[in-house]
Automatic annotation (TrEMBL):
Protein name: SUF system NifU family Fe-S cluster assembly protein
Originating organism: Microcella humidisoli
Membrane spanning stretches: none
Any matching Pfam family: NifU_N
CDD domains found in the cross-reference section: IscU_like
InterPro entries recorded: NIF_FeS_clus_asmbl_NifU_N
NCBIfam families per the UniProt record, alphabetical: SUF_scaf_2
Ranges of residues in domain NIF system FeS cluster assembly NifU N-terminal: 8-136
Length: 156
């Protein structure tokens, strides 16, 4: 195992043991996603700025394998870092990020995630080599996508 693979593995382990963004508030609109193959479950909420135009944070609760839990934690961390840099995501920006994440994870290792764009979430690039684990890594991202689609549907 290369040094980079070891680092990525450690990031996934750290985020699964010490997750970021855990904790939902009463009344939040959530999306619950489940992987029936392995039993992973994620319930996720997007927290919006006061104007309701940008995602300031991602909150979640869940159970399952280290990959699904780390992926949710890494998505929450990425949202937090974006907001801290005054670059909280618009719905279109988050949609593009989710699509890029999905494309990389479905590439079977041919397209690694860009570390500049995805930060520590790029550690999930290696999951793309294991088709059975891709859904684990995608669970939180699919929940975010579901919330965006519902929001778009209710606004239209």
């Amino acid at each position: 195992m290369s040094g980079l693979e070891q680092l990525y593995q450690q990031i996934i382990i750290d985020h699964s043991k010490h997750p970021h963004g855990v904790g939902l508030a009463a009344g939040e609109e959530t999306s619950h996603q489940r992987n029936p193959v392995c039993g992973d479950e994620i319930t996720l909420a997007l927290r919006w700025d006061a104007a309701g135009e940008r995602v300031e944070a991602v909150a979640w609760e869940g159970s399952g394998c280290s990959i699904s839990q780390a992926s949710a934690s890494l998505l929450a961390t990425l949202a937090e870092e974006s907001a801290e840099e005054s670059a909280a995501w618009t719905p279109a920006e988050l949609t593009a990020l989710i699509e890029e994440f999905r494309e990389a994870l479905r590439s079977r290792g041919a397209m690694p995630l860009d570390e500049e764009r995805f930060g520590d979430a790029a550690a999930l690039s290696g999951v793309s080599k294991y088709v059975a684990r891709v859904k684990c890594a995608m669970l939180a991202w699919v929940a975010a996508e579901d919330l965006l689609q519902r929001r778009e549907g209710s606004a239209g």
